[in-house]
Design goal:
This protein is mostly helical. Helix content is 49%, strand content 10%. It has one domain. It binds zinc ion.
Protein backbone atom coordinates (compact mmCIF):
# COMPACT_ATOMS: atom_id res chain seq x y z
CA UNK A 1 0.00 0.00 0.00
CA UNK A 2 1.22 3.46 -0.87
CA UNK A 3 0.69 6.46 1.39
CA UNK A 4 1.16 10.19 1.23
CA UNK A 5 1.64 12.70 4.02
CA UNK A 6 -0.65 15.71 3.65
CA UNK A 7 1.78 18.02 5.42
CA UNK A 8 5.14 17.38 3.76
CA UNK A 9 3.83 15.31 0.80
CA UNK A 10 6.27 12.53 1.44
CA UNK A 11 5.25 9.32 -0.38
CA UNK A 12 6.17 5.85 0.72
CA UNK A 13 5.19 2.20 0.52
CA UNK A 14 4.33 0.13 3.50
CA UNK A 15 4.29 -3.62 3.25
CA UNK A 16 3.34 -4.29 6.81
CA UNK A 17 0.06 -2.54 7.36
CA UNK A 18 -0.66 -3.34 10.96
CA UNK A 19 -0.50 0.11 12.50
CA UNK A 20 -3.84 1.45 13.65
CA UNK A 21 -2.79 4.98 12.94
CA UNK A 22 -0.28 5.71 10.25
CA UNK A 23 2.48 8.21 10.73
CA UNK A 24 4.66 9.99 8.20
CA UNK A 25 8.12 8.50 8.28
CA UNK A 26 9.64 11.90 7.53
CA UNK A 27 7.79 14.54 9.58
CA UNK A 28 5.94 12.23 12.01
CA UNK A 29 2.61 13.79 11.12
CA UNK A 30 -0.51 11.64 11.35
CA UNK A 31 -2.21 13.48 8.50
CA UNK A 32 -1.63 10.50 6.24
CA UNK A 33 -3.93 9.03 3.58
CA UNK A 34 -3.64 6.28 1.03
CA UNK A 35 -2.03 7.67 -2.10
CA UNK A 36 -4.96 6.34 -4.09
CA UNK A 37 -7.32 8.63 -2.16
CA UNK A 38 -5.09 11.62 -2.85
CA UNK A 39 -4.81 10.71 -6.51
CA UNK A 40 -8.55 10.36 -7.01
CA UNK A 41 -9.07 13.80 -5.45
CA UNK A 42 -6.49 15.18 -7.91
CA UNK A 43 -8.31 13.53 -10.80
CA UNK A 44 -11.66 14.92 -9.70
CA UNK A 45 -10.22 18.41 -9.30
CA UNK A 46 -8.67 18.15 -12.77
CA UNK A 47 -12.07 17.17 -14.13
CA UNK A 48 -13.83 20.05 -12.33
CA UNK A 49 -11.27 22.57 -13.59
CA UNK A 50 -11.70 21.43 -17.19
CA UNK A 51 -15.48 21.36 -17.04
CA UNK A 52 -17.37 24.35 -18.38
CA UNK A 53 -19.60 24.76 -15.36
CA UNK A 54 -20.23 28.08 -13.68
CA UNK A 55 -17.32 29.00 -11.42
CA UNK A 56 -19.43 28.89 -8.28
CA UNK A 57 -20.65 25.37 -8.98
CA UNK A 58 -17.07 24.32 -9.68
CA UNK A 59 -15.84 25.81 -6.43
CA UNK A 60 -18.44 24.12 -4.27
CA UNK A 61 -17.74 20.78 -5.97
CA UNK A 62 -14.01 21.24 -5.53
CA UNK A 63 -14.43 22.06 -1.85
CA UNK A 64 -16.50 18.91 -1.46
CA UNK A 65 -13.82 16.81 -3.13
CA UNK A 66 -11.12 18.32 -0.98
CA UNK A 67 -12.88 18.16 2.37
CA UNK A 68 -11.91 14.55 3.24
CA UNK A 69 -8.28 15.61 2.75
CA UNK A 70 -8.41 19.07 4.29
CA UNK A 71 -10.21 17.76 7.36
CA UNK A 72 -7.11 15.68 8.07
CA UNK A 73 -4.76 18.63 8.30
CA UNK A 74 -6.74 20.88 10.63
CA UNK A 75 -6.00 23.03 12.44
CA UNK A 76 -3.88 25.34 10.37
CA UNK A 77 -5.12 27.39 7.42
CA UNK A 78 -1.64 27.53 5.91
CA UNK A 79 -1.49 23.76 5.83
CA UNK A 80 -4.86 23.67 4.06
CA UNK A 81 -3.68 26.20 1.48
CA UNK A 82 -0.49 24.22 0.93
CA UNK A 83 -2.57 21.12 0.37
CA UNK A 84 -4.77 22.94 -2.14
CA UNK A 85 -1.70 24.19 -3.99
CA UNK A 86 -0.29 20.69 -4.13
CA UNK A 87 -3.52 19.18 -5.46
CA UNK A 88 -4.00 21.96 -8.01
CA UNK A 89 -0.43 21.51 -9.22
CA UNK A 90 -0.90 17.77 -9.51
CA UNK A 91 -4.10 18.47 -11.43
CA UNK A 92 -2.09 20.35 -14.03
CA UNK A 93 -2.37 23.96 -12.87
CA UNK A 94 0.87 25.79 -13.55
CA UNK A 95 2.81 27.42 -10.73
CA UNK A 96 2.14 30.93 -12.06
CA UNK A 97 -1.60 30.25 -12.37
CA UNK A 98 -2.08 28.95 -8.84
CA UNK A 99 -2.86 32.32 -7.32
CA UNK A 100 -5.78 32.79 -9.69
CA UNK A 101 -7.42 29.77 -8.09
CA UNK A 102 -6.46 30.58 -4.55
CA UNK A 103 -7.02 34.31 -4.55
CA UNK A 104 -9.47 35.46 -1.92
CA UNK A 105 -11.26 38.70 -2.60
ZN1 LIG B 1 5.19 14.20 6.49
Amino acid sequence: MEYICLLCFHRWHERMDTAKERQCSRCKSRAVVEYQQFESAVNEIRHIISSSERPLASISKAVGVMSPLTSRVRPGPLRVIRLWRKVLQEAGVKENELDVYLEVK
